[in-house]
Fold this sequence. Notes:
- The chain is mainly alpha-helical.
- The protein has helices spanning 21-27, 29-48, 61-72, 76-89, 92-105, 123-161, 180-200, 215-220, 226-236, 252-280, 305-327, 338-343, 346-365, 371-379, 386-395, 401-409, 416-424, 430-438, 448-458, and strands at residues 165-170, 173-179, 204-205, 240-241, 284-286, 367-369.
- The chain folds into 3 domains: 21-119, Fumarase/aspartase (N-terminal domain) (Fumarase C, Chain B, domain 1, Orthogonal Bundle), CATH 1.10.275; 124-375, Fumarase C, Chain A, domain 2 (Up-down Bundle), CATH 1.20.200; 382-440, Fumarase/aspartase (C-terminal domain) (Ribonucleotide Reductase Protein R1, domain 1, Orthogonal Bundle), CATH 1.10.40.
- It is built from 19 helices and 6 strands.
- A hairpin with a 2-residue loop joins strand 1 (165-170) and strand 2 (173-179).
Amino acid sequence: MKYDYLTTISPIDGRYFNKTNCLRAIFSEYSFLKFRLKIEIKWLQKLSEINEILELPKFDDNENNFLNKILKEFDEKDAFWIKSLENKINHDVKSLEYFLKKKINSFKCLKSISEFVHFACTSEDINNLSYGLMLKKSKKELLLPIWETIILEIKNLVVLYKDIPMLSRTHGQAATTSTFGKEMSIFLYRMNRQKKQLKNIKILGKFNGSTGNYNSHFIAYPNVDWIKISKDFVSSLGLEWNPCTTQIEPHDYISEIFSCIVRFNLILLDFNKDIWSYISMNYLKQKESVDVVGSSVMPHKINPINFENSEGNLGLSNSIMIHMIKKLMVSRLQRDLSDSTVLRNIGTALSYSYIAYDSSLIGIKKLKLNKNEIFKDLDKHWEILSEPIQTIMRKYKICNSYEKMKFFTKGKKINREILHIFINKLKIPIFEKEKLKKLTPKTYLGLSKEIVNNCLKLN
Length: 459
């Protein structure tokens, strides 16, 4: 069978190919090889700057340009050469080392120093920094920008509908009035918290040899301050240096990143489900193209498929990341390889999130508030004003205020006239009676508008 987007097993590379294309530049096997090559070359250049290493003179501009050109011109042909060798020797990082040596040996000025490629390194020195760079890039260029976009779209809903009263539902039952904008502002605030937390998570890296003790570094060049060299090298890549590790960087920061993404995803999942419910209640309508088919047999339908698609993909993403959160922080003694295959699925986990984010954004842009339905529903539920009435009764110490209001309203059809009859009979000041009689389900808003304005100031 010919390989193309129709014959892939994963929908990430098939059905959703176009939605996840931006992640391939970071998490594909080709990109992973290129990140590794970058680390190997930069380490070789760093070694050449250490005065105590007499056997490796400082590279001149010509030599540095040659090395930089290897990275710049790295292409699929190079990647296939490395993978072919890996199939033979069964070691991915060693294959990359041999590739770089082959390139260097073709340049006369550097041929004599090719043994300094991968000097004093363990594979995990190269891999952990590569994953660090991949996560740094995806966090800055993909995750935070699309989170910002989702947050902005929800903020638009808040601003647009902050004054529109809406019946709340607690336990699915009619409850006191809110505004649609206020309910959206809750998601705005929650998502912004996670965005700030993700922004502040430091991405760590280590570069200290096979068990984290600089053993081979020290035996070869005992007069070099390898701890400082390691710190400077990791920091030069824009990563936070981890000073104390085994063979592997222990992945705690990856767990922190994924925990934050899982929380954001759960908030978005909560949002999706609420929007789905508001659509089913006819509080929200969806703008659709005339060409779009909602159902294969029911022509009238406009299904909330974008929010459903998002919900499903958020679940897939979170399930993978939750496994990673628990798995990656645990390694037997100084190292086992069980993390390797898991780490290779970082792109998979983030791809499902990215598909979900895209679906939610498409869905949000289709939404339009159905004010007529919302106001009609409010007018059906005058019983919600039993709350303010019994609260004022309590204020004036009327015995069994709650119980009297409960007896009067529970299970009965309540309207304005019935409530006013009850209010008129209360032994409370006239101004309180007038205040209560002016209330409607539409106007019993509490401080919801102030809450929205405060939220907007924070976001």
